[in-house]
Amino acid sequence: MKIAGNAIRQGMVIMYKEKLCVVTRTEHRTPGNLRSFNQVEMQDVQSGTKYNDRFSASETVERVRLEQKNFQYLYDEEESLIFMDSETYDQIHIPKTLVGEQVAFLEPNMTVEIEMHEGRPLGVTLPETAIVTIQETEPTVKGQTASSSYKPATLENGARVMIPPYLSEGERIVVRISDREYVERAKE
Fold it and tell me: Could you tell me the pTM of the whole model?
């Protein structure tokens, strides 16, 4: 779908110089008595190369539509993660780098959303929260309350989070995956 250069917004995926790029920042500028333009920063999805260009209202670019599908995580294999399409049962291999630091929270049979363009995976979105067990933390001191002071803890998946002082090893907690923040004690 073609769109005008001044309609480009952050988060859009566009074709730029025959490369698939995600728009990371836009700024509409009107310098003096010149025509206005849209200053666009974007990043090549494949190579990670960053581009910075200006587009006028008369220019058009190709906006790319991405397909979102639910997949089930199966297992990891060296540098790849294996997912299964929930509808067709086809398996795909995705590099661990595409998931990033959130890979620690992947559990077998977890349903994730994978964004694809022409069958090629571009991004993996995990659920908002995960329930994990505290493996190691400082011991609880009698009389400590739920004050604003938090203590470090290592979870069963190796991730490190800050938890309230009254929690101890072996307890299950809910963690927000995107920023590794403690949410609450898990309800049994």
Answer: 0.69
Cβ contacts of 142 within 8 Å, gap of 6 or more: none
Are 39 and 92 within one domain? no
Residue 157's domain comprises 129-185
Distance CA 93, CA 66 (A): 19
Q: Of 27, 46, 63, which one is at a domain's C-terminal end?
A: 63
Does an H or E element contain 153, and which? strand 151-155
Please check the confidence at residue 28 and state whether its pLDDT lies above 60: yes
Q: What is the pLDDT of residues 158-180, one digit of tens each?
A: 999 999 988 889 999 999 988 88
Q: Say whether both 48 and 74 belong to one domain.
A: no
CATH code (residue 87): 2.40.50.140
| CA torsion through residues 7, 25, 94, 105, sign | negative
Give the integer Cα–Cα distance in Å for 40 and 116: 23
Question: Structure tokens of 98?
Answer: 């595409």
Burial class (CB within 10 angstroms; exposed 0-12, middle 13-18, buried 19+) of 114: buried
Share of the chain above pLDDT 70, in %: 95
**What residue type is assigned to position 144 of the chain?**
Q
